[in-house]
Amino acid sequence: MGIREIMASDAEDLVNLIKQVEKESEFMLMEAGERQVTAEQQRNRIESMKNSENSTIFVAEKDNNLVGYLFAIGGTARRTQHSVYIVIGILKDYRGQKIGTKLFESLKEWAIERNIRRLELTTVTRNTAGVALYKKMGFEIEGTKRHSLYIAGEFVDEYYMAKLL
């Protein structure tokens, strides 16, 4: 299993991976089938992020298949360019195999090279495995977004978590 930065040629595989992760997880922002991104739109996004100093996508690959991803979306205003918002997803069958840890380790190296000082994310409070991973990687809960999402007929809270580098 390897971790690498995404290439434009991964666009279609990334679209399929994201759709599968959203189908398998109740903790993602989008519900299964809600996201309508084409491979061409994803390719354009990848190329745009590659041209940015403070944004990228890391992918986890096993047996030539993408099994996980980590988006690092940098701030666009001068006052937020030191900050990156993170979105991570891993296929259900590959969770608990240190893939999240490896994605975050690659992110940290990349961020330090670019003088990124703040990594941030949100997660559903009942995502115990995710919260445990983020804390293990040095993230701290900065606050709670109450009734942030509406999942399966109920309002749920999210933690706002960050790590300073």
Provide a descriptive summary of the structure in words.
- It is a single chain.
- A hairpin with a 2-residue loop joins strand 2 and strand 3.
- The protein is built from four helices and seven strands, in the order E-H-H-E-E-E-H-E-H-E-E.
- By secondary structure, the chain is of the alpha+beta class.
- It is globular, with a radius of gyration of 15 Å.
- The model has no long low-confidence stretch (mean pLDDT 94).
- Helix 1 packs across helix 2 (39-50).
- 30% of the residues lie in helices and 36% in strands.
- The two termini are 27 Å apart.
- Strands 1-2-3-4-5-7-6 form a seven-stranded mixed β-sheet, with helices on both faces.
- The protein has a single domain (2-121), classed as 3-Layer(aba) Sandwich (Aminopeptidase).
Name the shape in a single word.
globular
Structural class, judged by helices and strands?
alpha+beta
By CATH reckoning, the class would read Alpha Beta
CATH superfamily: Gcn5-related N-acetyltransferase (GNAT)
Provide tags for this entry:
single chain; 165 residues; alpha+beta; Aminopeptidase; seven-stranded mixed beta sheet; 4 helices; 7 strands; 30% helix; 36% strand
